[in-house]
Each structure stands twice: as structure tokens, then as C-alpha cells.
């Protein structure tokens, strides 16, 4: 009952002598500190908004402009060409000011207007500079005079000490490609997948669409591009993610792994204390906009940072027809799941963040709690793993009031969701294959009821000290989570650390409130819905054939010696592996970012090209020499790099076609061409994000380049498909990488 007493700020009793009022000083102190923290955050946001609003200038530059104007006036020079005098004539308070006072006020107003005009001019020039993408198409290691001049101008107009969102207003808008260009690129992309008759038919559909319906759809799309910040992103979020009615577990959510070969501490509560504290430190930097703006690696070119905004305090809310994303500006607690029970844990006390030691004690208290789950509580989160419409109806029917509403609200408002898992995971040297496969599946779906799949991310800590993460996909793409994840791991190991016994460092406040159990009243009808959702989710999870393996033979260090892009090298190897695995080529998805533009997300690189197909055929043709194969490989690599650059600079295929299709639906017109294009299955889906949605008879492949000598692969498919086998495909990937490297005759040492 200690928590209940601390939660009450005052008590009173009516007696014959009057009212006996008893104040709780501790509770009043916490209310004061909480309010103080809230006002500090509001002030910080206001200050940051102002600094970002005047970027690339700085607030101090206003003073410089004012002093310069005042100085010229005292030198009897009018830099305003009479405008200060005009302002002086029309001052509404001129009758209350002296002649000198009127001059000063007029000069201040003119200086401020001039300052804003300079800001808008600098911002416009920077936006025009950032619209130039010729630098991306230049040969690696060589830079033209034009690009050198352009870089110098970007540095000049980029301002100094930018904050996280400083560049947002200066980023260009995503351009709408020409219909003719998209049609030509599309037909080229499907040529290796079709025979002559199929290709001739598709060419006819494309030409008919280009001539008749496309111009009308394109006009609406250009109108949107002039009005909206990004003509793709809002429709992409809504129609690809939020309107999907199937489970988001496995199909959409993705995961992140811990270090494979290092475990900082084997103590579950201690690892939880440090890592949760590290995540909260990251959140504080994010809310203060202290994170550096994202840039193209190794350059000064800024990328859009808008996706960072919803990293924390965010939940996907189910709807019967479409979901919504609910984001809160702040949250002072997290929700923890352990052995079927939900707990609320405060992460602030006395106006400060709980330190790692205090969080360790909180988590240890939960681990030591032996109380059983309430009726229906243990598998409640399965609702977030099943069909979205089922979850939406259940939410409306059984979580509208009382304890259920309060507890659900606590989960959805939490900074993030934490699971203290009860199964050990991670790489075991005695059984590396099965242990990594099990680890990946645990992060991807767990038991289907021990992660809250609607949260922006669920964070898992295992009994042996390993950690992992499951992220919801609609609010942002993988690089955003990746940045947070890398920062958390670095902070945990290199900044916070552990003592000699493996516990968190520091001292704990003994007066901290303990974790509170969330209360539920789950009816029999609701339990039946939970059971049905779990059945759907379990069937989906059981069908996932997953293989995770580290490729240690070589990495990007050796690939660079081949004078080719590591990404192109791996993508062409995947084409070779897939052809050996299935004996045919397929439509291939590779994710590329479009964050060079405001609110940009992703574009598709169609990695199966005429050039890569020619190379693969040559590898299987005994009459071809290695010199022939190497020449074809270089052609394929150059083509892939061109497609990747096109995708990054807004000249991709699939987002344009997708938006044309959305416009056609709004107008109520049907296009046989668009309908066929958007129904084509991706039978090989690749990216540097673990798991992507793929056809039932296809493969999903994620590869993460770790340092110079290691590439981690994650291969997924379905047991229900007789055409696929994740371990077989993994073997083919290994062999393809080695076979391509052998063409270069390099000494691996």
C-alpha cells in the first residue's frame, strides 16, 4: 500500500473541531518537480522551434544585422533606401515616442524584416543546391570541378551547428518522374522475366496506358507534389501499412539483434537497467534535438530527419478499416511484461531519470514477483499479433472503460514496451546454426503473445543477458531504429558499464515507488477472441522458415579491392544464388531510401536486370571464360549502381506507379496495366532490414555489413512452400559470394 499513500497529495477528516487537513510533503514535492520538468520541456521545445525556424541563420545574426543597420544610420547613410523613413511615418505609436525613439523602432523593424528576407533567401539557395544530384553519378574517388564548387557553396549556406530538424525546410521536394521515363524503365526491368510474347503483350499495355490514361493521372499527381511536402509518403504510410488488415507480426514488423559475440553482463535485470537507461538518454537527446542531423555517410549532404519524431511514446491503434498512429509528446513510464503479467514502471523520480542501478532494482523486483497472471492476462497481447479488424472490434467492445481502458491506455502511452523474456537466446558456439535461427524467430514473433506488436518498438531482455528489439514498421524505416540501436549498445558498453559482479553502477534511492501491476477484467467472450487471434498468429509464426548466419570468409574490405560496390556485389550474388536455387529469375525488391527529399521514405531498386541475368547465365555456361564472366559482372554492377542512384534521386519506378494507381482509384477509373503491375509478386525481397514482406513461395533476405570482414545474413521463407528452403538458399548464397570473388583472383589475406 506504500504506492497508494505516496500517490495521495492530501487527506482530510471532518471532526467536531473542524477539518483536519494533512498534507503529504513528498507527494507535493513530486507534483512540483513534475510540473517543473514539464515546463522546462515546453520551453526547450519552443526555443528549439525558433532556432530551427530561422536556420540556416542563427538568433545572434539578428543582433549583427541590427547593429550594422544602426551603425550605418549614425554614419548618416540610409541602407534601406528610404524604407526606414516610410516605416517611421506609419508607426501607430509615433505620438508617444521622441524623434530618436521613432528612428530606433523603425530601424529595428526594418532590420528584422531584412533578417527574415536574408533567411528565406539563404534557405531558397540551399534548397536549390540540395536539388543537384550530379555528385552521386560521378566515378568513385574522382570529383569534377562543378561538384567541388557545389560542395563549397553547400558548406557556406548550410549554417553552423545545425540541430536535428534544422535542414527540414531546406530539403527539396520529391520530383514526379515523367511518365515516358517510368514506362521505359519498367519495361526494361521486366524484360529478363518474360518471354518474347509476354513482353510484347506488356509493352502494348504500357503504351496504351501512357497514351490514354496516364496524362490525366499524372496531372493530379503533379498537383499534389506542388501542394504536399512529399507526394508519396502519406499514401505509402496509409495504403501500404495502416490499411493492411492482416497480422503485422512477421508480415511487417522487423527486428534488431544484440552483439553476437559479446555479452556485457549475464545478469538479466542489470542488462535491462543499463539498456533501458541508455534508451531513455537517447530519447532525451531526441526531444532536445541534440542528435546531429542525419547525412549521407561520409559527406555533408543532409537527409530528412522527420521520421525520428515518432520513435518513442508511439503506438499503432487498430481500426476496422484502417489503423492510426498515436504519438504523445512525452511519457514518464514504460510497461514491462514478464511471465504473463504487465507492470508499470516509472522512469522519472524527483524530476530526474532513474539511474541504471535504480532501474535494475525495479526489474529485479518484477523478476522476483511470483504472483500469477490475472484471468485472460497472460496471452492478451496476442490481439496485437492477429488480424487487425479482429483487434479493432475487440478493443472497441472490451476495452472501452474501467480497468481495461486504464491499463490499455498505460501501454499505449508508454515510452516503449519491455519484455523480460524467460527463454535464453543468442549465439551458442556448440550449436551456432540452430541457436541463431531460434534467436531470430524469438525476436521476430516470440510466443506471439509476449510482445506488444503495436508499439513503435518492443524491447526484449533474455535471462542470459542478451537483448533484442521488435519494431513496428509504419511510423519509420529501419535506419531510424538502427541509429537508436547502435547508440544504445555503445552507451551500454562504453559509457555506462558494469561493476565487477556484473551489476549496474551507482547508488539507488530507497524511496522509489515499486512497479505497479496493471489490472484487467477479461471476460469469457474476450478470452475467446484472444484465443482466435493467437491461433492465427501461431499458424503464421510456425510457418516461418528462418536461417540466420554470419558470413566470415570476407567482407566489404575485400570487396572494395575488387573496385565494386559491396551492395552491388551482394545483390548480384543473390541473383546467382536464387537462379541456382530455383532455376529461374524473379522480380526482386531491394529497398533504397529517398531521404534526400523532404519526408522521403523508400524506393524500390529492381535488382534483377538484363545485365545481372546475362552474368548469371554466363556463370552457368561452361563455354564462358572467367574473363567473359568478369566483364559481364562489371556491367551488372554498374547497372545496379545506376538503378540505386536513380531510386535515391527520385527517378525510381514503383512509388510513381503506386501513386498513379492511388489516383486512379480516387477517380474511379480502372487501368489493366496498373492493376497487373501492382499485383506482380516479389519473390525475392532484399534489404538491410531483417525481414520484408515477400510472396508465399519466395525468399526474404536481409544482409548487414559488419565492419570489414563480416556480413550477417537473415534468410526467411515459408515451410508451407515446396519451392523454398532457407538453409538451402543460405548455402547457395555462401557459394555464390565465393564464386564471384574467385573471378577477381585476389589474395584474401
TrEMBL record:
InterPro entries: Carn_acyl_trans, CAT-like_dom_sf, Cho/carn_acyl_trans, Cho/carn_acyl_trans_2, CPT_N. Its EC number is 2.3.1.21. Its main location: mitochondrion. This is carnitine O-palmitoyltransferase. It is a multi-pass membrane protein. GO terms for cellular component: mitochondrial outer membrane. Belongs to the carnitine/choline acetyltransferase family.
